């Protein structure tokens, strides 16, 4: 056994999407940081679909970006196709999505990390956490090397006791072609942390030159790209196309006839898979009436041939995979480059975490990403940056940072994780937020930039741009309120079809009309062209959705009454009279930080909340 | 518990007392009182801690009850908030009507123990009482929850549950469209939503308008006139109404269908129903009328069995009495201006009134008998049932607004996310009865109903 000799403040284990954000945040906040990964060639690897964003996930990327994270900048720099989703269903559910060049994405992130002054990137497979008197002191690698650190962030992805299934064969592995980490979960369990098991899967990767794209429907990117990051100007590089393919009855028959070769149906897989991302065999069994399933065929990178067929993840044997692909139109002579597979892995039940992502059992140990039972690059990045921030703040003896449910999807996610039992891998959906109308991509900067600045992650340049935008929003709003249109402004009346205009109205009042948007107003009012499109967008949303936004804010205010009642960690639930044993046990286990959070724990009744409130009042006086 | 709004509940316990007290607490107490209360002295301002006599009227200007009211300004009150107490007549129907009146004004029904809770939160109660309060809240909530569960089996709860599940269905589709735009989902067709929401809205309106809790208030207590043909029912009805509305002839069976008229008897709104005479008939129209009469009897709040005192009672009178069994009955002997041909004790232990529609003799006494009966009330439901029923009403009332907005959004092609917002809010209110719809429930339905996964 040997000691590496350098004492770190923050050690991050795993260089995936969670680990990279955690390590960058802590180093940028001034902590000497170590990022340990099993393989230096797989930093920020996209293990499954080669894309970032989508509903709620795009929102998370915007929030990570507003806090000063890297994901938004990284995808803006390496995206090869950008599409904005839900453009006509309301501002809160518009979301950015991009196909990434998987290789470029990984390479750029690695480069950013390598150039971060206080950050050391090293290869090493961690086998054990080092704990002294309930406090983390470091980690030990397979080679017996000990790295000492004040805090540790574990971002283990699918690597803890990873077990790969291809047909009825299975073998240990953290990802296709990479080893698993066999020791960490046992090491954590020995300190009393509860370990669970989940499953996920990925489809085969296909060779582009073996697909007849002329038989597939083409899907192009948006003509005008809206970047993920607040700091990215315009993106005008050439974009690539995706394609839409479909399974058919013959595909389904092949799969149905081979279900006995699926480890899922043979009862070999025990981990629970994601409900929103079932394997193709699962879809065919559960929805027997559907005679066709869609798949987006997505390029994985510019300088390579691999194509990713979405929605077709599987654990069937490679020969069955080949047979069903070849039954699909356009894939008659397709070649599989890597077979699809399912993977089971250990996770640590996240109800054992504080809202800071620090474990309750071991001080100084933080968890982020799939180790918390989540799924998705964006979810991982979100937890990663917050775990990194809180590990760093602990080293710097600063109070922790917790984001509220009304401040961001980041807050919703972590609150859900620590109060709700894990039923399947957790993915973010916009429906998980009770304040959806307030948590938009377009206002992520307004929600979190100031916090990021306070923490020390927002650069001077970003701060300057942010302040400038806020000024523009205010000025544009006053301009709209103060500028009047009368029936004598014939050009405006004609262009905006205002035949019914009787007395003078302000531009703001005009903009309230459902049929008039900010572009219409700008087209007749040259004064508005001085303001940036981003500022005008904010003003438009604030005016058009005023009623709903107001109602949502009132809801926040009502809920805040209980969110603001903090529950001390030392609160003795045994001393509170008249709450049921079941509720008492839950409260003791989860130790909610606020009355509001206590109310969200399954089974905690409003009566119990009232009782706690009375008890607190009694104690404080 | 939210402590910023204004709440209402009976402050007196269950059981039939002559007088009940209804308490309102919160910033809107005084304006709420004045919304429906007219002091006899026509005062426009009430002094704190002074008792005022007056009438409570609903929006149709019907008198709901004659009451005494006191306004107590904060902080010298039970809850340390502005408090109004209304002393009304003790019948359950009256209490229900008054609660409904204020609920329709936006005053929320208090949770079990909520007045005491507020008193404590505002520092009014001694600290040593805290434990007792918490136990009280726990016990009360528990028993009302058990009761609510017991009642889930039937009636209004089932209706609310059904409304909830229709709203949930809309929300599931909407959320699926919002969160999974790239998946293979049913077409975004909201025409169906418009149909469902329109139907829901009208059903809820009907229920909230005619719901028994407020019946005395809105359509009045239902009083049925039953008796054999030509017993004098129509004449009695006209006499009570004070005008000639029913068709009166000497040919038996003239009144073939119902004649329903609203009137106020000593301040209590009443719906008086004159029925087809109950007799064996071969006339098809009349047979149908008789069948419907029997149906109506089962719903009546009070039955007036009308018997012609100038004739010896016969089998038809007795079968008329039998058809009313189980309902509260007054026996009304008519035509006492003619020669009396029967024994007034013929029909046993029911209250008896003797009247002449022609000379108006005995009518006042009958009116008084009816109103005091209705005020005293005939049902003996306990307080919790009353509160549970009022909660159902409140939930329905509150979800109407968001349903209306959602409907407006659908009809005007508004953003899908706004429809989701309104449906969620409506579900939240109904959920207070039918159980909360969690995100997890919605997601479960999405993933089991649609093939999601790309």
From TrEMBL, chain A:
InterPro entries reported in the protein's UniProt record: FAD/NAD-bd_sf (IPR036188), GIDA_C_N (IPR049312), MnmG (IPR004416), MnmG-rel (IPR002218), MnmG-rel_CS (IPR020595), MnmG_C (IPR026904), MnmG_C_subdom (IPR047001), MnmG_C_subdom_sf (IPR044920)
SMART domains for the chain: GIDA_assoc_3 (SM01228)
Residues that, per the record, bind FAD: 14-19
Domain of life: Bacteria
Keywords from the named record: Cytoplasm, FAD, Flavoprotein, NAD, tRNA processing
GO cellular component, one term: cytosol
Transmembrane helix keyword on record: no
Protein name, UniProt field: tRNA uridine 5-carboxymethylaminomethyl modification enzyme MnmG
Species, as recorded: Desulfuromusa kysingii
Organism phylogeny: Bacteria, Pseudomonadati, Thermodesulfobacteriota, Desulfuromonadia, Desulfuromonadales
Designated gene of the protein: mnmG
UniProtKB/TrEMBL annotation, chain B:
Chain residues that bind (6S)-5-formyl-5,6,7,8-tetrahydrofolate: 23, 85, 124, 454
Domain TrmE-type G: 220-375
Residues that hold K(+) according to the record: 230, 249, 251, 254
GO molecular function terms attached to this record: GTP binding; GTPase activity; metal ion binding
Assigned EC number: 3.6.-.-
Annotated compartments: Cytoplasm
InterPro entries: G_TrmE, GTP-bd, GTP-bd_TrmE_N, GTPase_MnmE, MnmE_dom2, MnmE_helical, P-loop_NTPase, Small_GTP-bd
GO BP annotation list: tRNA methylation; tRNA wobble uridine modification
Any one of the GO CC terms: cytosol
Record SUPFAM superfamilies: P-loop containing nucleoside triphosphate hydrolases, TrmE connector domain
Alphabetic keyword roster: Cytoplasm, GTP-binding, Hydrolase, Magnesium, Metal-binding, Nucleotide-binding, Potassium, tRNA processing
Transmembrane helix as UniProt keyword: no
Subunit structure: Homodimer. Heterotetramer of two MnmE and two MnmG subunits.
Similarity comment text for this entry: Belongs to the TRAFAC class TrmE-Era-EngA-EngB-Septin-like GTPase superfamily. TrmE GTPase family.
Function: Exhibits a very high intrinsic GTPase hydrolysis rate. Involved in the addition of a carboxymethylaminomethyl (cmnm) group at the wobble position (U34) of certain tRNAs, forming tRNA-cmnm(5)s(2)U34.
Protein name: tRNA modification GTPase MnmE
Phylogenetic placement of the source organism: Bacteria, Pseudomonadati, Thermodesulfobacteriota, Desulfuromonadia, Desulfuromonadales
């Amino acid at each position: 056994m040997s000691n590496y000799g350098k004492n770190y403040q923050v050690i991050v284990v795993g260089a995936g999407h969670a680990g990279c954000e955690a390590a960058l945040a802590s180093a940028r906040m001034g902590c000497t940081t170590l990022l340990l990964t099993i393989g230096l060639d797989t930093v920020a690897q996209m293990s499954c679909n080669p894309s970032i964003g989508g509903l709620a996930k795009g929102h998370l990327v915007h929030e990570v970006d507003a806090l000063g994270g890297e994901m938004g900048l990284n995808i803006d720099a390496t995206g090869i196709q950008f599409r904005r989703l839900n453009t006509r269903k309301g501002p809160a559910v518009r979301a950015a999505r991009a196909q990434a060049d998987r290789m470029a994405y990984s390479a750029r992130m690695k480069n950013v990390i390598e150039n971060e002054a206080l950050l050391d990137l090293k290869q090493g497979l961690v086998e054990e956490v080092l704990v002294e008197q309930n406090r983390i002191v470091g980690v030990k690698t397979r080679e017996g090397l000990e790295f000492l650190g004040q805090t540790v962030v574990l971002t283990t992805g699918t690597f803890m006791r990873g077990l790969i299934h291809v047909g009825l064969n299975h073998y240990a592995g953290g990802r296709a072609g990479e080893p698993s980490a066999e020791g960490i979960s046992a090491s954590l369990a020995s300190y009393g942390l509860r370990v669970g098991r989940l499953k996920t899967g990925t489809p085969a990767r296909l060779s582009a030159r073996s697909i007849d794209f002329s038989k597939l429907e083409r899907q192009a990117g948006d003509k005008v790209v809206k970047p993920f990051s607040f700091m990215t100007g315009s993106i005008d590089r050439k974009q690539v196309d995706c394609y839409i393919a479909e399974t058919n009855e013959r595909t389904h028959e092949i799969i149905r006839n081979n279900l006995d070769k699926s480890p899922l149906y043979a009862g070999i897989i025990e981990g629970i898979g994601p409900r929103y991302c079932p394997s193709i065999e699962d879809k065919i069994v559960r929805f027997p009436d559907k005679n066709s399933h869609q798949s987006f065929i997505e390029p994985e990178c510019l300088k390579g041939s691999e194509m990713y067929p979405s929605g077709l993840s599987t654990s069937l044997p490679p020969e069955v995979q080949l047979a069903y692909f070849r039954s699909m139109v356009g894939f008659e002579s397709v070649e599989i480059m890597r077979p699809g597979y399912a993977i089971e892995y250990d996770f640590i039940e996240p109800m054992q975490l504080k809202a800071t992502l620090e474990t309750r059992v071991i001080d100084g140990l933080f968890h982020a990403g799939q180790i918390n039972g989540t799924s998705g690059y964006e979810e991982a990045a979100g937890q990663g940056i917050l775990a990194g921030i809180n590990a760093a703040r602990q080293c710097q003896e600063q109070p922790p940072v917790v984001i509220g449910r009304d401040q961001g999807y980041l807050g919703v996610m972590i609150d859900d994780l620590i109060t709700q039992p894990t039923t399947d891998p957790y993915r973010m959906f916009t429906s998980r937020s009770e304040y959806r109308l307030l948590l938009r991509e377009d206002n992520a900067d307004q929600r979190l930039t100031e916090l990021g600045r306070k923490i020390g992650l927002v650069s001077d340049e970003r701060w300057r741009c942010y302040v400038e935008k806020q000024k523009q929003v205010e000025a544009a709003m006053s301009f709209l309120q103060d500028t009047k249109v009368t029936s004598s402004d014939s050009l405006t009346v004609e262009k905006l079809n205002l035949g019914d205009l009787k007395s003078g109205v302000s531009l703001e009042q005009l903009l309230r009309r459902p049929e008039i948007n900010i572009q219409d107003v700008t087209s007749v009012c040259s004064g508005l062209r001085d303001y940036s499109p981003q500022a005008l967008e904010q003003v438009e949303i604030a005016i058009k959705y005023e009623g709903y936004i107001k109602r949502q804010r009132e809801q926040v205010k009502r809920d805040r009454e209980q969110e603001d009642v903090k529950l001390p960690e030392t609160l003795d639930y045994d001393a509170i009279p008249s709450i049921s044993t079941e509720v008492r046990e839950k409260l003791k286990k989860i130790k909610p930080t606020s009355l509001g959070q206590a109310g969200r724990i399954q089974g905690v009744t409003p009566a119990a909340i009232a009782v706690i409130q009375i008890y607190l009042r009694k104690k404080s006086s | 518990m939210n402590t910023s709004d204004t709440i209402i509940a009976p402050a007196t316990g269950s059981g039939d007392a002559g007088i009940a007290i209804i308490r309102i607490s919160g910033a809107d107490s005084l304006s709420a009182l004045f919304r429906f209360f007219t002091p006899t002295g026509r005062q426009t301002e009430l002094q704190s801690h002074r008792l005022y006599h007056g009438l409570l009227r609903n929006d149709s200007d019907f008198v709901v009850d004659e009451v005494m009211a006191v306004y107590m300004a904060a902080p010298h009150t039970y809850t340390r908030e502005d408090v109004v107490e209304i002393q009304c007549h003790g019948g359950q129907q009256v209490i229900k009507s008054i609660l409904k009146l204020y609920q329709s004004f936006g005053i929320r029904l208090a949770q079990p123990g909520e007045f005491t809770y507020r008193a404590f939160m505002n520092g009014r109660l001694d600290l040593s009482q805290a434990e007792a309060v918490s136990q009280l809240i726990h016990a009360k909530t528990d028993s009302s929850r058990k009761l609510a569960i017991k009642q889930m089996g039937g009636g209004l709860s089932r209706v609310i549950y059904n409304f909830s599940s229709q709203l949930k269905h809309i929300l599931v589709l909407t959320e699926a469209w919002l969160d999974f735009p790239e998946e293979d989902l049913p077409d975004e067709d909201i025409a169906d939503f418009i149909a469902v929401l329109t139907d829901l809205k009208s059903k809820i309106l009907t229920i909230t308008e005619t719901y028994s809790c407020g019946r005395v208030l809105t359509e009045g207590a239902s009083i049925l006139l039953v008796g054999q043909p030509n017993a004098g029912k129509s004449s009695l009805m006209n006499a009570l109404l004070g005008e000639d509305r029913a068709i009166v002839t000497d040919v038996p069976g003239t009144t073939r269908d119902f004649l329903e008229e609203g009137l106020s008897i000593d301040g209590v709104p009443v719906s008086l129903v004159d029925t087809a005479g109950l007799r064996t008939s071969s006339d098809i129209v009349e047979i149908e009328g008789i069948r419907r009469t029997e149906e109506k009897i089962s719903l009546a709040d009070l039955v007036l069995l009308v018997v012609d005192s100038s004739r010896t009672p016969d089998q038809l009178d007795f079968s008329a009495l039998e058809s009313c069994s189980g309902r509260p009955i007054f026996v009304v002997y008519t035509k006492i201006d003619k020669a009396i041909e029967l024994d007034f004790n013929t029909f046993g232990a029911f209250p008896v009134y003797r009247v002449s529609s022609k000379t108006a003799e005995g009518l006042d006494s009958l009116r008084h008998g009816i109103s005091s009966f209705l005020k005293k009330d005939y049902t003996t439901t306990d307080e919790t049932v009353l509160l549970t029923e009022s909660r159902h009403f409140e939930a329905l009332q509150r979800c109407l607004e968001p349903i209306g907005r959602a409907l407006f959004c659908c009809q005007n092609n508004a953003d899908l996310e706004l429809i989701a917002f309104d449906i969620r809010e409506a579900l939240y209110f109904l959920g207070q009865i039918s159980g909360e719809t969690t995100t997890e429930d919605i997601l479960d339905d999405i993933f089991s109903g649609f093939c999601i996964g790309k």
